[in-house]
Prior knowledge:
Layout: E1 7-10, H1 16-26, H2 31-39, E2 47-52, E3 58-70, E4 75-86, H3 95-109, E5 114-118, E6 130-131, E7 137-138, E8 148-152, E9 163-166
Parallel strand pairs: 4-5, 7-9
Antiparallel strand pairs: 1-2, 2-3, 3-4, 3-9, 5-8, 6-8
Amino acid sequence: MNPGDIAVRPEIARDRPAVRDLLVRAFPSDAEARLVEALRGRTDPQVSLVAEDPSGEVVGHILFTPVEIRGVTDRSTAIGLGPMAVVPERQRAGIGAALVEAGFAACAAQGERVVVVLGHPDYYPRFGFRPAWSLGLYYGRPGPNAAFMVCELEPGAVRGRSGEVVYHAAFDAL
């Protein structure tokens, strides 16, 4: 199937069982499915999108939720990507890329300028992500972490921000 045949749209209530099923299938445990359920409707802003094939099957999902950047003297916010999943039999077909691109557009439309991700360092750089530590941001503990990356939806948006990036408490259960 051509990735152009996939429609990316906001998640609606009737998508929830399909999203849960695809998250359980795409990850080694149901932790990400439980995370999405714990976050759904509890953060603002939140961008939750699904990828739907022409038959109406939900074949992918992406979630963006707020994060806090805790600097030494100040605090600011950004938005975190994750989790993202595509049903296993449809991976490597451009669905994930369509979700990320549509997610970036939705985040930018609501005024978000900085996106962080804790993800695969060989996958996310194609979307403009780069090591967060190089821009003064870290997750967990200070220092380089190849899996923790940042993307500026607006060039220079990270300038003047540094410190620890803290996700919603629901992420602690992962």
